[in-house]
Design brief:
DNA-binding; homodimer; alpha/beta; Rossmann fold; elongated
DNA sequence: CTGAAAGCGCTTACAG
DNA sequence: CTGAAAGCGCTTACAG
């Protein structure tokens, strides 16, 4: 704690405007604007006078004034579902690098993976708080599409699977990673090394991207000739906690699975912990696969899938920037494929 | 790829303004404003006419116009150094919860742990892109203080150690966790269980918060009567990669340390991996401590320190909100203490 | 090289 | 209950 009775902001309550600077420098506001933005001709002497006045008044331009006139914020928003999932770090990095090079600043927004949060992000674009939006969405609802249609600035949708909108004439570019193929491949891989009892950690129910993953699980089972068993499917949440309780549940079943496919790495990690805490071994007692290729999976030796998130971010940003600079190309749907990284957790044939 | 020749945004090029709505509804802009914001009296019939017009024109208010007039953005920025460090997730969560309850939206900004990035964040506050700023800073430079002084909106500084500014009459609230005490305690703990050769993973050189941690390491050695050995100190980066190469280097020394204190968990984890990859055991061949209490440390059994990051975020947001609602209290410096979590990696007496 | 003026899209007293 | 008008802080043709 500190004292001294110093009051908050007592001397900075009203920020100087360009008018104040003009008055102090004895010139017009137009000239101040020219001088400060180094646009057009301003006599060196006048410029110095203006700079000194600005300095003295602690002048900082108010962005809202400029935005209103120029109709540009020079801000780009990246909206992610989940700040506690490392998978988005790579995206952030990719986006950041691209837009910074073009003089834009990055604003992150956090949707919590809920439609409402995603709509909030879109609204910020509608209200022109930012010039463009890259939205990592978990929903595929019509209302989202409708709201994006009302934006005057461009949006790029980043999808962890996106079959539903491809080619649907949506008013935005998309960049997706085919998560369906990831889960399908995982189950196929487990079947190939001999597993017939394959449990599934499904994530949060009613979240569209998890619905798609679940479909992949079922399809892969079917194609491998393995009957579907509802009791092997655990819905909870896509978090580590969700995975933990799922792992616990599945591992304690009388007729327990010999392998578990998790619909993302967070769950795989939680599951790994649960099995360990119950005295089981991965692999040995149970095989395990995840999806996202998180760092920790490399350390623990859990089979997973590289999601090329950095590339996804980069490409999304590139598309956005190109729209922002006026491109009128027809909208693009870009796809990536997850790449399996086989590790100890699923290395041995049953 | 999709075709169909649909051109980008052909029908939404110019967004409707409040004037357009007023014209279509046959009323004045003032009345439109009243109706849309439900302020003052508007006849039900008129209101409906306006709503219909707004609907028809796909009207969305332009935030810049409103901001200019109201001098409020209703946006709060949280600037973090590093998006790949889980430690900030808890902060985000804490901040988000507090401000959302008061009708503010959260914008994240990413400083990369560099002074330049921190200054960028401060500038966005100066330009009034946001109403308030919570800055997790890694620098203690005078220029940062000067720039914050030029802001008309409030800032709260979140410090991973902050002795330098405490009581210095700075124009902002601070919330800090005493990292010095964390590192000091870690070294003390290692000494107590018998270690005399304690290596140190120091983080990025010339980053102020890491300088303080290093001082704690030296002080603790001294107080334990252990001579300082420069070759046991590894400067690199605060990342997992940095820890990995540090762990490699220290573990391969002829007269290697029997314990390693890492200045954060990311490095501890990297070190853990390096030792494992070299065939060593933690503990057994080497003891290890980290700082931040990341999830993965719990899984790997690495001794670490709870940094109360959620609480830090909550408190920072509370202070900011209180300034935003006009509080003129003198500035506060709030301190937390890291709490050691002893785990396997440093459990056994040498 | 500089100034006067219009206008970006909104809100808010103030009249009526 | 509604309208006319001022003004938030900036930029940008346009004159001179």
């Amino acid at each position: 704690m500190q004292d001294g009775g110093k009051k908050a902001k007592e001397m900075t309550n009203r920020q100087a405007s360009i008018t104040d600077v003009a008055r102090l420098a004895g010139v017009s506001v137009g000239t101040v604007s020219h001088a400060l933005n180094s646009v057009g001709y301003v006599k060196q002497e006048t410029k110095e006078k203006i700079l000194k006045a600005a300095e003295e008044l602690n002048y900082v331009p108010n962005r809202a004034g400029r935005i209103l006139k120029t109709r540009q914020t020079r801000l780009v928003m990246l909206a992610i579902p989940d700040t506690s999932n490392e998978i988005y770090f790579g995206m952030i990095e990719g986006v950041q690098k691209e837009i910074k090079a073009l003089g834009y600043s990055l604003l992150l927004y956090y949707t919590n993976g809920e439609l409402e949060g995603e709509l909030d992000a879109v609204r910020l674009l509608q209200e022109r708080v930012v010039d463009g939006l890259i939205l990592v969405h978990f929903s595929y609802k019509q209302v989202l599409l409708d709201e994006i249609r009302r934006c005057s600035g461009p949006a790029v949708l980043l999808g962890m699977c996106n079959h539903l909108w491809a080619g649907a004439g949506h008013p935005f570019d998309t960049v997706s990673i085919d998560v369906y193929s990831g889960i399908y491949t995982a189950v196929q891989h487990l079947a190939k090394i001999g597993h017939r009892k394959i449990g599934y950690l499904a994530g949060r129910r009613n979240v569209d991207v998890y619905g798609q993953r679940f479909a992949a699980y079922r399809d892969a089972l079917k194609d491998a000739g393995i009957p579907y068993r509802e009791e092997y499917v655990y819905w909870n949440d896509w978090t580590q906690m969700g995975g933990y309780s799922g792992g616990r549940t599945l591992y304690q079943m009388k007729d327990r699975p010999t392998a578990i496919c998790a619909s993302n790495d967070l769950q795989a990690i939680g599951c790994w912990e649960a099995v360990r805490d119950l005295g089981g071994k991965v692999p040995g007692d149970i095989a395990l696969t995840g999806l996202d290729n998180l760092n920790i999976c490399k350390i623990l030796g859990i089979t997973s899938f590289d999601m090329k998130e950095n590339l996804m971010g980069t490409e999304a940003a590139r598309h956005l920037m190109s729209r922002l600079s006026g491109s009128q190309m027809s909208y693009q749907d870009l796809y990536f494929r997850p790449e399996i990284q086989v590790r100890d957790s699923s290395l041995y044939t049953l």
